[in-house]
Amino acid sequence: MTPSSKSKQVMGLIGWLVVSFIAAGLGAMASVNASAFYGQLAQPEWAPPAWVFGPAWTLLYALMGIAAWLVWRKGGFRANQAALTLFLVQLAINALWSWLFFAWHLGALAFADILLLWLLILATLLAFWRISRSAGALLVPYLLWVSFAAVLCFSVWQLNPQALG
């Protein structure tokens, strides 16, 4: 690998990580008061403590960025436009969930959003898998976490109809 191509790869990795963490930041903006709001909600007994979400999402966003980079490495954006566009769309839907749930307190729309997110993650995982099995595998923890989060979202919404209309 030439120094120029190594530099391009490093910049590509940084770029995809930045894209992933921008989405995380957009969601976090809606979650500024999430801890206080979430703590006031009735929750199922199996709900994790609020402190678990930050580290879990940080790891997942890092894995997402690495996965996108692995796909990008296989010919760039143009060669993998469908898969990488799916990735970008699911990032936007992911960020929207925090706004729907934490900022706007819209339980039904948050649940619909997370179901759409789950489908988009699955589609992205399959598209990535076809290009790079490693990239697809890196999205498996994300799909599993969002599966759990969807059940939690539904449960919290159902337990708090006044707070989450």
Describe this structure as you would to a colleague.
The protein is an all-alpha fold and 165 residues long. Helix content is 81%, strand content 0%. It has 8 helices and no strands. It has helices at 3-30, 34-40, 53-72, 76-79, 81-103, 107-131, 133-138, 140-159. Helix 1 runs antiparallel to helix 3.
Number of strands: 0
Annotation field: number of helices: 8
What does the largest sheet look like?
none
> What would you call the shape?
elongated
Mean pLDDT, to the nearest integer, reads: 96
Derived structural class:
mainly alpha
Which spans have pLDDT < 50 for at least 5 consecutive residues?
A: none
User: What is the radius of gyration computed over CA atoms, rounded to a whole number of angstroms?
Assistant: 17 Å
Distance between the ends: 56 Å
Instruction: Please give the share of residues in helix.
Output: over 70%
Percent of sequence in beta strands? under 5%
Order of helices and strands: HHHHHHHH
Short summary:
By secondary structure, the protein is mainly alpha-helical.
Question: Which descriptors apply to this entry?
Answer:
8 helices, 165 residues, mainly alpha, 81% helix
